[in-house]
Amino acid sequence: MTLATLKKNIHFLVNAKGQKVAVQFDLRNKQIRELFEDFFDTLAVLERQNEPTKNFDDIKEEILANRKSLSVKK
Length: 74
Hints:
Layout: H1 3-8, E1 10-14, E2 20-25, H2 30-48, H3 56-73
Antiparallel strand pairs: 1-2
């Protein structure tokens, strides 16, 4: 993605004083859309950064236990 592509697909809205108050992104552009997907993924990571973590082996055991209990119910 080039800077020229970004500039072409990003537009600032200004108030009567000429101050930037909003921004518009042309989401029809695939590169801009992908950039925003990355941005929202980053927001999700930041939102969850303080959640407690689980050990991989514990999660693996839970998944395997759930898989076994599902196969028994069939």
